[in-house]
Structures are given as C-alpha cells and as structure tokens.
Specification:
Structural class of chain A: mainly alpha
Oligomer: homodimer
Helix content of chain A: 55-70%
CATH superfamily of one domain in chain A: Winged helix-like DNA-binding domain superfamily/Winged helix DNA-binding domain
Strand content of chain A: 5-15%
Strand order of the largest sheet of chain A: 1-3-2
Chain lengths: 144, 144
DNA sequence: TTGAAAATATTGAATATTCAAGAATTGAAG
DNA sequence: CTTCAATTCTTGAATATTCAATATTTTCAA
C-alpha cells in the first residue's frame, strides 16, 4: 500500500516529471542550435511521413492542446515549414503538410535528437534504456 | 545505434513526455477536488517537514523556475497556506514555511495522491511500478 | 577594509498557454 | 428535407510563464 507520508521523490508522478524535465531540457538545448522548440520538432517529425494530418490528430500526436497547436502552426506556416490544406472529404478539417523547407530542417533536427539518444545510451546504458522504454509504453497503454 | 528515421514514439524523450502528461493529467483531476494545482501540492509536501526552505531550494525540489515559483508562492501566501520569513543567517534568502491551514490541506491532498498511486498499482502492477521507479531514479542520477 | 564578483529573490515586459465561446460543417433523427 | 446535436478548428480574453534586468546581501581577493 502506498504511504501518504512518503516523500514526494517516491511518487511515480514526481519521478516522471523530474525525468521528463531533465531529458527535455537536454533535448531543448540541442535543438536550440536550430532555434526550434521541441514541440515543433515533434510536429515536423509526425508530418514527415508526407501524409496530411488533421489538427486534432496532430494535437494528440505531439502532446499539445488544440488551441496551443493552432497558434504554433500559425508560426510555422509563417516560417514556411508547413502548410494547411482544407480536407476535401470533410471541410471541417484542416490537413497539415510539411514543406520542402520543413523536410530539410527536420533532417537536421533528427540528427540532433539522435545525438541525444546516443548520449543517453552511453551514460545510462543500452539495457536500462530499452527496459525503461518498454515500461513507459506499457504504463501509457495501461492508462487508457 | 539510434536511427534518425525512427518514429517519434520510439524516442525516450517522447515516451517520457507522454507518460508524464498522462499521469499528471490524472493527478490534476484528483487534486482539482480541492482546487489545487499539482505544483502547489508539491510545494506543500516539501514544506510539510516543518523546516524553512529557501526559494532556490524549493524551486529545485518542485521543478519550477525561480520566477514562476515566486509568483505561485505569492498566491499561496494570499491563501495563507504558506508564509515567508527572512533567513536570519543570510538575508538574501527567504525561508518558506507551511501554515497550519497548509498542513490541513496537505493531508487531504496526500490522500488524493495516494488514491492515484494505488490506482496505478492496480492497473499497472506492483512489479512494473517499482521497476519503473527504480529506472527513473537511475536515469535522473545518470543525467547529472 | 574596500570594492568587485557571486548568490539570492523579485519585478516588469514580452510570450505562451489555456479556457470558454464562436464559426463552419457534418451527421442523424424525426 | 429540416433541424438540432456533434465534430472540428480558430479566436479573444484571461492567466501563466519566461527572459532580462534590478535590488539586496554576502563573499572574497587585493
């Protein structure tokens, strides 16, 4: 049974927040070389399959609230990294696509992100990393 | 070696963000019964040892930037959950203390948080939970 | 001892996020 | 068919967060 007087550092929610903050900070630092926030990298990465993705779908995938995504996409459209197309099958929807410029940037960002993953692999270990990923996936699954 | 064309869902940074978002959302939902944001629960919990904690120390412990913490503490002082005392040994510092009202609230919040931990234990399992905690701690350690 | 650098916390302006409401389109029941 | 509810996205106002600058105190070297 969980104890209500346990220090906060023993709560799963806290450990997740702490780890996330730290890893995210590191990633942020790398991506800042291209002046791109982590969320924009996620967006480019999801769109880099070349398909059109609706805003709702994207919001889920990149872990952003709907209005926040809208405004971030506005900026990215200004920067010509992505563009909007109205969905011909359902005109309530907007389909987002990545531009050529977006693709070029995404490649650079991917390699910065991979740098980080490898840095983690080195200091944290192959085994731990894949085990942690497995456990996180299963936690996420069990939360739906 | 990490692959740069791997889907975003395979990146550790993404899995952490996703899991954190989900677990945090659940916790938020419970704490909303007392209309308290997760960060305020963390603050109360850290202060509930009864000692005075400086703002810098607190900011680290509760995973908030310094100015964000200052403003959140302002609100909590208005709500008489905590109070400030100038550190007599180093007058640059401010020591934060929890009030009696804060303690009462903290108890209620703790039990809401424990509810969640137990819910996770049920659906995710004892073994996985403690293994995940262990791995997260060690990831955090290895990142310093 | 003095004066410059470092540490600590807060403030204000600039940005970003969120909540609630709105506009447009679709679905579906009567 | 028509109308009303549901879906999708955006907008605007209210909040919250962040960055850079400031004020205060301490540290420490000259």
């Amino acid at each position: 049974m969980a104890k209500s007087n346990a220090p906060i550092t023993e709560h799963l929610a806290y450990l997740l927040a702490q780890a996330n903050r730290e890893i995210n900070r590191q990633l942020e630092l790398r991506l800042s070389k291209e002046r791109v926030p982590v969320e924009q990298w996620r967006i480019l990465k999801v769109l880099s399959d070349g398909d059109g993705h609706s805003m709702g779908e994207l919001a889920d995938a990149v872990l952003l609230n709907h209005p926040t995504l809208t405004k971030m996409i506005d900026r990215m459209v200004s920067d010509t990294l992505v563009y909007r197309v109205q969905d011909p099958n359902d005109r309530r929807k907007v389909l987002m696509f990545i531009s050529d410029r977006g693709k070029v940037l995404c490649k650079k960002l991917n390699s910065l992100a991979v740098d980080q993953e490898e840095h983690i692999l080195e200091s944290y270990g192959d085994k731990s990393t894949s085990e942690l990923k497995r456990l996180l996936e299963s936690l996420i699954d069990s939360s739906n």
